Amino acid sequence: MLALGITQILAWGSTFYLPAVLAGPIARDMGWSLSSVVGGLSWGMLVAGLCSPIAGRLIDRRGGRSVLVFSSLMLSAGLLGMSVATNLWLYYLAWSLLGLAMASGLYDAAFATLGTLLGERARGAITGLTLIGGFASTIGWPVMAALESWIGWRETCLVLVFVHVLVGLPIHWLAVPKPLDVGRVSALEAQVALPLDHGSRRLFSLLAGLLTVIAFVMASLSVHLLTSLEQLGLPIVTVLAVGMVIGPAQVVARVLEFSIARHLHPTWSARVGILVSLIGICLFIPGVPWLAFVAAALYGAGNGILTIARGTLPLVLFGPQGYGARMGALALPMLLAQAAGPFTVAFVLSGKGASMMLVLMAMMAALALCGSLSLPTQTRL
């Protein structure tokens, strides 16, 4: 768990959180629009979504080690390509490689790996993994910012290449064991990943829809929340302080999940996470500074709980058999929603304003909460 936690910090820090630090310097240096540079992440997430089902099936059939090693290689290749990119075509090619890395190396792949190794006992490890991985932005942002100001964005990418080659790759190769029964899942089982009865397919569709809506909301707010608070009239210093509350709140919620609520059924955890996030989003709408701090704490806590539920719900509802393929199938619509959400919501923010955007996010969270009420609380089917 600790080993995978370290590599999750490296993977998230050099993919999902990278544009927050390097997009501005890249745009200024290359003369590209900021939207084109940030669009690389959306393209990478699109690639990741399309490739995630394949990664999940491979983890079921061969174990997670080889897939995670591949992710380290793609992270290195993508960052190397980014460091030498001289036009947008090469830049987006680099993000294509990073998309392959995200499909095979972020939470969904790590959860699937733990599922193949630990089976139904993987819930505690998944919670611990998200607890460690929650420090990706806390560590990644200041380190990349310091490197960029010292040596430039291209050299920063090269440093990240060496980190993945010298740290991430050896950890995945040496610290992730092979499952004792690799190959036990047939090609057909890995492709279907679910019982063929109507009830199971319906439950899987419900779970996929619920997680996709949540992914859309969280990705949209991760990009536009601070801008929305500025539009609502909060001072920039207050806005930045509010943003800093979200990360620690996620970690605190995950600690509580790990220590106090670990025996709570994941369905109830998901309901609590959605409800707390919904309340947080609603409290942002008035644009009151002190209330925004409360909102950020609640929103961050709910987000932290939901990251865990994303991995534990499929495991508990359907069992460990075919878990990797199932996680890959769930990741497809979620990653597509994460890629489309910020782009789509930007039109609402610019056309209708921050209040309407936050109301829309609250309505979608409420929809997800209603959907969660239909999830069973039995151990599994």
Major sheet characteristics? none
Q: What characteristic shape results from the CA principal axes?
A: globular
Quote the distance from N terminus to C terminus.
27 Å
Assembly annotation:
single chain
| Approximate strand percentage | under 5%
3D structure, described in words:
- This protein is mainly alpha-helical and 381 residues long.
- It is 83% helix and 0% strand.
- The chain contains 16 helices and no strands.
- α3 packs antiparallel against α15.
- The radius of gyration is 20 Å and the shape is globular.
Task: Provide a short characterization of the protein structure.
By secondary structure, the chain is an all-alpha fold. Helix content is 83%, strand content 0%. It has helices spanning 2-13, 18-30, 34-62, 64-83, 88-105, 107-118, 122-133, 136-151, 153-175, 187-192, 198-231, 236-259, 266-284, 289-318, 323-352, 354-372.
Give keywords.
16 helices, 381 residues, single chain, mainly alpha
